[in-house]
Amino acid sequence: MKSPSYIGRFAPTPSGYLHFGSLVAALASYLDARAVGGKWLMRMEDLDPPREEPGAQTAILNTLETYGFEWDGELVRQSDRHEAYQDIINRWFSYGLAYACTCSRKQLEDFQGIYPGFCRNAGHSPDNAAIRIRVPELEYRFEDRVQGEFRQHLGRDVGDFVIKRRDGFYAYQLAVVLDDGWQGVTDIVRGADLLDSTPRQLYLQELLGLPQPRYLHVPLITQPDGHKLGKSYRSPPLPVDQATPLLMRALRALGQPVTDELSFATPREVLGWGIAHWNADLIPRVASIEEARID
Ligand code: GLU
Ligand code: ZN
């Protein structure tokens, strides 16, 4: 079914080069958009310059191009969007919905990442402080297209969370929701490591009066040694000369029935095959290590 109103996106963080796990996420979001004639946008989530790997932005975009991906419109950089983020923070701060937190890491270390609310009513100034958003004592739930139902109680399992860091950088949770809303994204396809960020994002969407997008969280790819391929683990960058075999592996990790004849195709042709045959119902909840292995 064609749905030209579909707007998808890929939103890499330039803290490292593209690895196999991010290729799987990029591929799934690309095919899901193109299979219905939708748009596919590219957004660089460069919110954290100290953790940015020099040259990573260019390398990510070059790799995607070599692998045959084409995005619609101009690349958006989150580093160009600080004003929009700060405006919302100011508004929420003036309503008392957001507040300044001066807690040290040490003060919070016994709470397993759930903020105990120490600064909720302290009335600290926002200078040199983190900014947190108050969360309601409510459970947020959504139906993921692959992972099924996911629920999380924001008060109990998360607590008031950071929307601006003490060092002045904006938090991913805030920026991603504002940008997806601003860019009109209807469908979010990304790695399952972000499943448990989604309820926080649903809450921010609600505050902003944004429509809730559809979600599809692709399985995480684990290495044979059990390591997750991801930001925290130095996985090798994708080789430029292996585009066709790696795209085929990524298709297999997504449960798509690739045949060996595709080995002789160009990366563009592999993507074309993927668009024509895309079936999101075949995506496994957990990727088989064998299928995903890169050697
Ligand atoms: N920038 C995030 C990452 O690279 C992805 C954000 C998202 O897709 O919502 O993990
Ligand atoms: Zn605090």
UniProtKB/TrEMBL annotation:
Residues annotated as binding L-glutamate: R9, F10, A11, P12, T13, E45, Y172, R190
Q: One GO biological process from the UniProt record?
A: glutamyl-tRNA aminoacylation
> Needs which cofactor?
Zn(2+)
**Which positions are annotated as binding Zn(2+)?**
C101, C103, Y115, C119
Presence of keyword S-adenosyl-L-methionine: no
> Can you list the GO cellular component terms from the UniProt entry?
cytosol
Motif 'KMSKS' region — list its residue ranges.
228-232
EC nos: 6.1.1.-
What are the entry keywords?
Aminoacyl-tRNA synthetase, ATP-binding, Ligase, Metal-binding, Nucleotide-binding, Protein biosynthesis, Zinc
InterPro entries with a match to the protein in the record: Glu-Q_tRNA(Asp)_Synthase, Glu/Gln-tRNA-synth, Glu/Gln-tRNA-synth_Ib_cat-dom, GluQ/Sye, Rossmann-like_a/b/a_fold
- Superkingdom of origin organism: Bacteria
Give residues annotated as binding ATP: K231
Q: Cite a single GO MF annotation.
A: glutamate-tRNA ligase activity
> Can the keyword Ion transport be found in this entry's annotation?
no
Q: How is the cofactor bound?
A: Binds 1 zinc ion per subunit.
NCBIfam families according to UniProt: PRK05710.1-3, queuosine_YadB
Function, as annotated, reads: Catalyzes the tRNA-independent activation of glutamate in presence of ATP and the subsequent transfer of glutamate onto a tRNA(Asp). Glutamate is transferred on the 2-amino-5-(4,5-dihydroxy-2-cyclopenten-1-yl) moiety of the queuosine in the wobble position of the QUC anticodon.
Write out the similarity annotation.
Belongs to the class-I aminoacyl-tRNA synthetase family. GluQ subfamily.
Protein's name in the database: Glutamyl-Q tRNA(Asp) synthetase
